[in-house]
Amino acid sequence: MKISEIILYDEPTVPEIQLEKLAEFLQKTFPVKVELRKNILSYSSKDTAQKIAACKIFNLRRDFEKHIPTPEEIAFEELNIQDTSNTENIIMYDGFHLHKVLTDLIPKDESRNNIFHVFFTNKLTCTYDYNDYRYHGRALIGANPSIISTTGIIEAPAKPREYYFELMKNFTQGVNVDFVKEKFKGTYLEYHDSRLSKIIEGYLLQTIFYYETGEPFCENKDCKLLNAHWQKDLIHSQLDFGKLCEHHQYVLEEMIKKNQS
Ligand SMILES: [Zn+2]
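Above: query sequence and zinc ion SMILES. Below: predicted holo structure tokens.
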């Protein structure tokens, strides 16, 4: 393995990440040392707030256009750096540009191939897709460093189709939609979902597999490397099944062997 050490940077507003549990999982899976740290934004420099504000997306239907932030937007990001619970509804950020800003915050002497950095964030990271010419929320951005967006995990994989149909039907009839949410409860992840930590294990495996082998995903729904487009599949692959498929278990074992030889 290229990696000998993994550093996880916390998102303190989402305690359901359970960093210690993830460290345990990683150490059980790979022969690596794991270090836990505060949020990557605690390494911010003077111009970080301005750079983050410049990553905001305003038009979902157009590829990234660099935004010149207003003093208010910069002040907002400065507050958010001090305490990430200082936030508004959901702001969308271009994932690749945010990735670059956060990558620059890694201490220089730790920017090495054998140290793998993972930043957790509550910011919604998005990428522009040329297949349908629009931005989509993403749970995972990049590999070493990787950003794992807890908001992306909840917002990006789609909820059941029936959920949207019922929501729309009742919404247009002016009926309270809370009962629709209640009816589908459990079939998708919610904010502060206690299942989040287990779900994150899969995203960690995907990004580490990508870094080590170039192949992050599996087609098999019975595998933690499934690139789930639906909440249902995410929950199935990470919780109901909750392991690697036979093939990827073998790939993992080979990866580890290479480490020892
Ligand atoms: Zn697999």
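The pocket of zinc ion is lined by residues 218, 220, 223, 225, 244-245, 247-248 (CB under 6 Å).
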